[in-house]
Amino acid sequence: MKKPEIMAPAGDWKSLVAAVNARTDSVYLGLSGATMRNKAKNFDYEELKKAVNFCHKNNVKVYVTVNSIVHEWDIEKNKKNLEYFKKIGIDAVICWDVSVIRQALDLDLEVHLSTQASTSNSEAIKFFQDLGVKRVVLARECSLDQIKEIIEKTNVEVECFIHGAMCMAISGRCFLSQFTDNRSANRGVCVHNCRREYTVIDDAGNKLTLGNDYILSAEDLCTLPFIEKLIEAKIHCFKIEGRNKGPEYVKTTVEAYRKAVDFYFEHKNDIDFEEKFSKLKSELMERLKEVYNRGFSSGFFLGKPLNDWNDVHGSKSVKVKIEIGKVEDYLSKASVAIVKVFSQEIKIGDDLLFIGNTTGIIEEKVESMEVNHKKVDKAEKGQLVAIKLNNKVREGDSVNLWVKR
Q1: In terms of C-beta density within 10 A (0-12 exposed, 13-18 middle, 19 or more buried), how is residue 99 classed?
Q2: d(CA 212, CA 111)
Q3: pLDDT digits (tens, 9 = 90+) for 284-306
Q4: How much is the pTM?
């Protein structure tokens, strides 16, 4: 049984570096203005070239998404973009519109069929495979039993989302945002109406606020509790959603699934495997709860998620990051960061997140600090403080408290 590929989201440089440092196998990202996640910062031509070089130096594959609805005026632009992707050596393009598939294959680019194609059966897969598609990202509405059957009947690589946000509409085919704000979800600019609190008013003027149950807002997918079932189903690639989320989310989710998958393959024949694996998954679940989530659901893998709706607005994460300062300098020989404190205070024992385009994200516990070369227990707003670290950070990195809500 082959170890599945773990794929991480990369909406910007910070998340990209965080994913690589967390030992992802691949990343998926987008070119500005050409994806279903246009609210993510994405990458321009030059940044994309640098991202590919950085990832390939670290043995990480790069997949570029071109998965929004294609209009007539998009065709020439897509052709130009695909030619550039070929030139800089991306590993595959993720798409679903037949025009993009055809253009990519004409350039000998590897094509992965996006989940936006809503592919959920073996005959549809064979059609796309005959065109030249190498991998299919299945519709999120497929159950685990259906996925197994599809894998048995085809020899195409199968990729599935295993963690992250889920849409209440089938394969994201939603028009709420288009109707209310003239911002099409299918062009990558959804305003996420479904996540809001709604008030229902009857003909008599009575109001009912739907705040205890956000009936359009689905919980997030999380397959960690049964990840072994996905491994044993021989799914080729495990995909994590989250190009609009922060680097702390990317780091934590990739590390969690990396540890779980590696542990399975290294210890699956141990006598006490089930006990140890169950304990590890419980520990990793606590880590996943620390970062952005709307509650967790098994999605469609184990049956239809009929009652898996969110009951709060926003995130249920048990931790939150608060930006409080900036790295003014880093003394490499002493492994000390000189931090300017902008707000609040830093105390011994605090958990900090250092975030930057080159650093990615580094988590550190404050164990030693000095102000004006004197050891202190805390540093206050406006002070320059020297903090001893275990990892390298860089000038300009943001400094954030990582605290419980």
Answers
A1: middle
A2: 43
A3: 999 999 998 888 888 888 887 65
A4: 0.87
